[in-house]
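Fold it.
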Amino acid sequence: MADVLSVIPASVLRNLSDKLYEKRKNAALEIEGIVKQLASSGDHDKISALINLLAMEFAYSPQANHRKGGLIGLAAATVGLTSEASQHLEQIVPPVLSSFSDQDSRVRYYACEALYNIAKVVRGDFIIFFNQIFNALCKLSADSDVNVQSAAHLLDRLVKDIVTECDQFSIEEFIPLLRERMNVLNPYVRQFLVGWITVLDSVPDIDMLGFLPDFLDGLFNMLSDSSREIRQQADSALSEFLQEIKNSPSVDYGRMTEILVQRAAAPDEFTRLTAITWINEFVKLGGDLLFPYYADILGAILPCISDKEEKIRVVARETNEALRAIEANPTENFDVGAVLSVARRQLDSEWEATRIEALNWISTLLNRYRAEVFCFLNDIFDTLLKALSDSSDEVVLRVLDIHASMAQDPLHFRQLVVFLMHNFRVDRSLLERRGAFIIRRLCVLLDAERVFRELSTILEGEADLDFACVMVQALNLILLTSSELSELRELLKQSLVNAAGKDLFISFYASWCHSPMAIISLCLLAQTYQHACDVIQSLVEEDINSKFLVQLDKLIRLLETPIFAYLRLQLLEPRRYIWLLKALYGLLMVLPQQSAAFKILRRRLKTVPSNSVNGDQLKRASSGIAYSQILHHSGSKITEDGDMDQDNGNLQNGIEFASLQQFKQMQQQHHMLAKSRAQLRDSSTSLLKDGPKSRTPTNSNIRDKEASFKMI
């Protein structure tokens, strides 16, 4: 210490701690001269002692003016050392770095000034302190004092220049430092970080693209910053990196894809747009490299298809089509189950466009990877059935297309119809709102006859009689009115003269017996008019209720449509179609005279030529001859209703109705169930009036009794 004091005059040391800047500056100039002399003489021990004095007695002093003097003195000593300063940096730089966190803003300012002067002298030699300097500058960029910020900015520019020209800079050591600070919210720090990323990316020898996944999320986070300048800087940096990705032969898509998928769901629109744009480019560039991330990408795209921002929707749709165009092999890291799971989850989306695209993906997977999709059928089948209740017709159409594709396999066809009936049974509103729509579409996709035969078979053994009746009425209305079932109606019209028509009629008959109005309609359609008469005449009081009359009203109105034009034309030949005439008069007798349907049917019957009816035919029509006997008349062939041709015709087309037994038995079950319910209602009413009694049946007894009627 004594040697150092002998070198530095006491006045210099005194002025170095003076409160006036000019005195401190003059003292620093004298120190610079002293150091130059010592350096020229090679006396580095004294130089080291002098630097130690400046650090310990001044830079680390509790007195602010001493710290200011120490900083300017250390900078002056470095200038005096010139090219030899590098060997003393271990002593010079740490005190300066320590001053960056000083409580006095002026000390922090002079620390920036001192390090700036030191850096100008040593240039690349001080790179060994880069991480500490970067950390200090990061804090100073957000300093509360504007002057300190300005000084730090100047120092930052110099450090960037030094780093770009230095080949000793270690990007591997710098990246962890950068990654730690990327989620800082302070706008000044964000500007500082983006500035460094941009500068380092511009250096040819530094591969920032290889480390992009480490700070990509932070850049995307800045896109939603409140400062427009920061958003623009972050966007500019991201655009530059995306361009580099396009030109790079090797890119780590995996880690970046995970980040982009998360950012595609960000609340900020600009962030979502940028993320989906990046995903779009990745899909185009990555190709089969993206197979492991296929499901994640799809999970990000589908919600964006329904985004409120049009630009996002456009890019999302483009990306979706590009992704669908990539045909993957399940053996090549392509997880069909994961993609299917994503599509299934998106069926719960509140947005129609997203649900439709999710269904399109399920359809695509089914077409390309049928065997693999069927392995996950249990996971998606219930969801697809629930989707039939969707409020969107377009969604329901897509669901039905998928069901139809799966139902190409007989086992899955049966499963589809069974589950569909179950859904109709538990959700009557679905049957009312979408029943006809769903069934008609399935008839187009799968074959109307196949669908109706399967439905009829299931309904024949249906335990819920109320549901069976409602379902048969719905199917009957579809059969009579839908254009999709025109071929089926034509086949049924030939039931008496065509084996295929007869077989179809018989397959419907048992289940149609659940509804008197449905069986009458079926007989009129199949031209089995005598049996229609028998059914009408067999109706009892329980059958002719308000529901029956509503159904009858619909039938009468349908008789006036083009579908039943053939029936109306047959009325021109009442001799030939005597049973048709009698059936229509039977319906007329059932209708209330003041009803609109009564008036419609009566007007129609008034147009029948009255002088064309043969007395013998009327006698025969009213004689009560069993229809089964007519159908089996020896040597006869039934060509039209009630018209027998004596020839050697084929009798195998005759239909045996077993004297209405099948219809009557089914209706008896419905009557017993109705009576049971009436008794239960009466019992409940009396209980409410009289109060509880010792032998009052319990709820479980009542349910068991009702169930027993359903099982008959």
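The mean pLDDT is 86.
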